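Its record is quoted verbatim for completeness.
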Amino acid sequence: MLFNKIEFALFFPIVLILYWYVFRKNLKQQNIFLLAASLFFFGCFDWLFLILLVFSIGLDFIVAHKIHKSREHKKAWLWFSIIVNLCFLGFFKYFNFFIDNFSALLSFFGLQSNNWSLKIILPVGISFYTFHGLSYVIDVYNGKIKPVKSLIDYSLFVSFFPLLVAGPIERATHLLPQIQKNRDFKYSNAVSGLRQILWGLVKKIIIADNCAVYVNQVFEGPSEYSGSSLAIAAVLFSFQIYGDFSGYSDIASGTARMLGFELLKNFSFPYFSRDIAEFWRRWHISLSSWFRDYVYIPLGGSRGSKYESIRNVFIIFLLSGFWHGANWTFIFWGLLHALFFIPLLLTGNNRSNLDIAAPTDIKAGIQTFCQIGFTFTLVTFAWIFFRADSLTFALDYIKSMASASFFSFPEIFPKTVLGYIFLFIMVEWYGRNDTYAIEKFGLTWRRRYRISFYYLLTLIVLYFYGKDFQFLYFQF
């Protein structure tokens, strides 16, 4: 059941009505109902995946209580949870990757190997709910939170349907307290949630899906296009993946807000970043902060020597790349971002842009937009490896893009889509100080104008609806 499909448009209103009008007076009943709705939502992808989800929930629920009660074996229980969770994640996501590369290594040394692999279906959302459970167990071990007594509450924390499939990756310290307290319907939250859902659909259906048409066409046969067309396709992919993933996050956050929850912010206008460090404070925030808190800081962060700091940065970015998928392209994508980040770390400028980009004069504006343009260029270059099927494909793509044909007129020049992107950037820039771009858009207008604007935006979304593109991050 996808957020951009008719099934969800039928499912969510039913859940919303029953949740607020049938179960609103009893918190336990509300949570049981939301849990049932979440399991049904997840089961719509494949009911067999529920077995793995339930096992993951039960494992971490029990281990957290064992850690809390144990004095001598706390660390053993912690590592038991980490190893079991990562083994399941590794088997479903990386088994064939390791087998294939081990076979290639043997062949390199002239040794014969039986090339075999398993037909493994990657369970939807496994990378996300595994990290939910791990963060909970680690926080219990570190004493940041006590293990929750109610299995229902913990199960809802892991399987809450707005974030179950593609995040954001929630923390028990943030979401569990919201699950455990009474929630009242607020009209302002419902309106804000609907507004954010609408903007998420704009990102997905108008921006991402329209970009995908041209991106897929070029990446399926890059040798047929000039360097200029390849460059345009790379830029379009940058907006495709941003519109697709941040659009999902907006829909998830808006859906959760209508149910009385506030999820962690996952995107904060990353393409307005002035350096790579700022980009990673704004892109997939829940993942980058997860690796920061549970890997980077325990390794020593930037508190040690320069060598240790550089080592930790490479570990974090390589893990981030590997988390995205079992392909060397993702690992190289992470390596590139580490290389982009290291100069900032060595010069002490990795935390120089902590505020919102807001030039106040012409000189500052020129400098800011040059920094934004340079950062976007680096990010777009790295996205080529993320989108490519193999390292060889990516390198050939870049080689063709950097040829003399880069200066020729492109065979593909989607003026209409580029126009949509331009308008999209203008709206995002206008709302860059807010949680999402249209959070306060039109609030000072007369009511009939404001309502007309949102009706018009809804009609535009419906007009473009119909392209059958799955959310990109479902594969991770």
Notes: The radius of gyration is 23 Å. The chain has 18 helices and no strands.
